[in-house]
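User: Show me an example of a complex going from sequences to structure tokens.

Assistant: Sure. Here are the input components:
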Amino acid sequence: MRVAAIGLGLTKFGELWNKSLRDIALEAGMKAINDANIGSSDLDAMFIGNMSAGRFCGQEHLGALVADQAGLSIPSTRVEGACASGSLALRQGLFSIMSGMHDIVFVGGAEKMTDISTEFATVGLMGAADEEWEGFHGLTFPGLYALMARRHMHDFGTTHEQLAAAAVKNHHNATMNADVAQYPFEISIDKVLNSTMIADPLTLLDCSPLTDGAAAIILCREDLAKKYCDTPVYVTGSGQASDTLALHDRASLTELKATVDASKAAYKMAGVSSKEIDVCEVHDCFTIAEVMATEDLGFCKKGAGGKFIEDGNTQIGSKIPINTSGGLKACGHPVGATGIKQAAEIVAQLRGDAGKRQIDGAKTGMTHNIGGSGATCVVNIFRRF
Amino acid sequence: MNSGIVGYGAYIPRFRIKVETIAEVWGKDGNAIKRGLKIDEKAVPNYDEDTATISVHAALNALRRAKIDVKDIGAIYVGSESHPYAVKPTSTIVGEAIGASNDYTAADLEFACKAGSAGIQMVMGLVSSGMIKYGLAIGADTAQGAPGNALEYSAAGGGAAFIVGSKNNEMIAKIDETYSFSSDTPDFWRRNYAKYPSHGGRFTGEPAYFRHVASATTGLLEKMGAKIDDFDHVVFHMPNGKFPLGMARKFNIPIEKMTSGFVVQKVGNTYSGCSLLGLSAVLDVAKAGERIFVTSYGSGAGSDSFALTVSDLVDKRRALAKTTKMYVDSKIYIDYPTYAKFRGKISV
Amino acid sequence: MHRTSVPMLWRRFKNKYKLLGTHCEKCNTDFYPPRELCPKCRRTGKIVEKRFSNYGAIVTYTQIYAPPAGFEKSVPYALAIVRLDKNGPDVLGQVVDCDAKKLKIGLRVEASFRKIYEDGKEGIIQYGIKFMPITHENL
């Protein structure tokens, strides 16, 4: 039993001062339902990815909230795995259809991050790391990835310029995704190197922003998909893995083992290898994260990610285009929505709907979504036939 | 009464600010102040140091030298005028951090600059009566002087810890005798909720420091039937360098006997830690058989005098932890803005 | 209202005030923070308390310029993962009393009991272990 994605919807990503969490969840959801050409009554269940509405907005119980706003009384469940919540929601939707329990499900993600101050959002995000042993010491997410970056630089000679190349590329891609992207403008290597220091060696432009945004996808049983959609895209592989919550408990500081394990599982299920991936959205919450993901997913050797990106191998039109949406860096990172946004970008690419950033002939695409500093990883593989 | 020091340890924060650096901010003549106070620089705690953290460092050093089972400590007293909490003991924080059992009595003490020496007397009583096996007494402070005030040149951070026991073969120095002299003399105080202390200017001298230190010193010598000449090292409380040297002149003590414990010039006045740091500096250099005389002073006012005799254990034990001089010498100089940031003189 | 939960902090005092973790006697692995279940030996492991070395070397480090709420006063501050001596575990902590220019991978540091965070002017003060450069080895 394969599962198809038959509709997608995204809000604008950014500082959406006029919109609340429920507003953006509804907006993305209705867009997806329209795009799938279904009626809301066709939906059997909903899975909502959200990391921290309780801390960011004081609102829990997201499943019911979204069903309520959609005027539905179907089963609706919130799924949480920090910044990987969106991809986890997609996986739950996948399971529910594969099990035969449901025919058509709604998988979405939403996060409203700008209703509280940056300092408190920083504290809230640290809930994805080890609060008792990392957050306690004043560590932040940029700090966690800076610890990895420093070691990567030390072990492999990776340079800040190489990290910056990922951000520059992602900003360039975002210029072609202006309807959604938070920062659809070009930056330069120099600009990254000289922007405000956040957590040495990472500067402001090495970091993804705080973002409001929502994304939704309609999943459907393979045999029903053609009824609603001429260009269904199938989820052919999905893998998930866990690692220690705390960075200092890990054997390696330069590899996310959860990425390696989750991608292996996804490749195996899809029956492909990294060589067959035509387009990929990776979790570039920080530039170093994109470098490590490029290595851990098998696109290049461990340690070679910086040079691989610097040499242009991940640009649109090159060997393996990465983060055509602009990535978390330039498209924005509404944490619970990110995994669904990544999937929506890959679905759009495989449908041939990606406009100026379209990868010609893309058949197989992949999303890579991380929770915390690598404690959760979800890799999903998509394909058109 | 039989008691003595089985372990001692010092702690001085790494940062120093020079007297002339402070003087420059207020348009004063730094050299004149240095000459007048006989203080060159003072120790400044980092932003994350307080009396509890200083006490823990000093106590851990004392434990290293004592080589006892920490679970045998039956009393912990921390003397300070800068306890982190107004209500909630520093002493239990120390107990937890050094890994003490729960089988100990504890209290925080306050008597301006002599709360630490009062703690030593309290544990002396407890160990020599047999109530406890060992007692830990600490004097530590993160003293604050108001910006621009004369105290700003001297008020420093640091502390020393002493583990007192009653077995002669465990003593680094036997405490031969102690005597105190107290009176109600408000030369220096800090009211509840006040950030900085107030003082009586020149009133802190003759009727306060000099009267009490001299009376306690004389009192102990009379009690013992001893002369100050019988002692090889003398420590008088050091609110600055001038007062203890003035006291030494009064007692005709040769300057050589004052130098080993004269930490104030490079550290400043560490308040409750001050005379105890002096004693720890003396123990770092004293030879077996030498005799030490210490008189503390706390405003408000009182002095505790102690007479000690160094045992031959001292050579072996002093090497087990950082010496006072190591702390005095490991320093990082800071400027006034950094000092103001560390000590909360600018509110964020 | 105070931000921090006192019971949450209090139950960890004994591990946070010193480098006291656990150890699996069966596979000889150290855990700090303490673990109650050995990931390798599972149910057959034997977990006991263990005090680790106060000394170690920096494995990686960063300097934080954009702090979470409550750490504003100490900016910029350094954080490092430190590998404790005697094959000890890797632990995370701030590095203090150290010029930022002197921070480097491999720098020898020792544990130091410090104030971690104050919950405003009226709340609890959290203490814990940070690291500082070693001034005198073996003392």
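The lines above are the inputs; the final block is the predicted structure for all three components together. The first strand of chain A starts at residue 3 and ends at 10.
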